[in-house]
Amino acid sequence: MPYVSLALKAQHNGLSVNKKNQLIRRFTEVLKDTLGKNPATTLVVIHENNEESANRGNTALLYQVTREKGRPTEDEKDTLRKEGIRILKEVLGHGDEPVDIQINEISTDNWGLGGESITEKRKKE
């Protein structure tokens, strides 16, 4: 299950439901097209932070993708970064402000669903 987290600072707060839905749909599409992931098992979360709680210096946005360790290739990671920036520019009108991009890889032993690790779930399949 890929997980995308978008943290937006104050200047992007108050996004309309339409813009949030666009972000969720488009990031889900990128994960489907790039990694072949089922949209039903993709989670996109948008965090809206006020100025006091968003102490990230000049970074206006944080874009994180969490995946299984070793799953995304270097080319896929590059695509996720480039497509993420493109979506943010198109949907939010995001200009040249810095975007903090993190692609986190987690061992399936350390990622669980329903109280069981992904490793254990796969053994049962």
UniProtKB/TrEMBL annotation:
Has the keyword Isomerase been applied to this entry? yes
Q: Which residues form the 4-oxalocrotonate tautomerase-like domain?
A: 14-53
Q: What is this protein called?
A: Tautomerase family protein
Q: Is Secreted among this UniProt entry's keywords?
A: no
What family does the Swiss-Prot or TrEMBL record give for this protein? Belongs to the 4-oxalocrotonate tautomerase family.
Q: Which Pfam families match?
A: Tautomerase (PF01361)
Q: Which PANTHER family match?
A: 2-HYDROXYMUCONATE TAUTOMERASE, TAUTOMERASE-RELATED
What are the protein's UniProt keywords? Isomerase
State the species of origin: Thalassorhabdus alkalitolerans
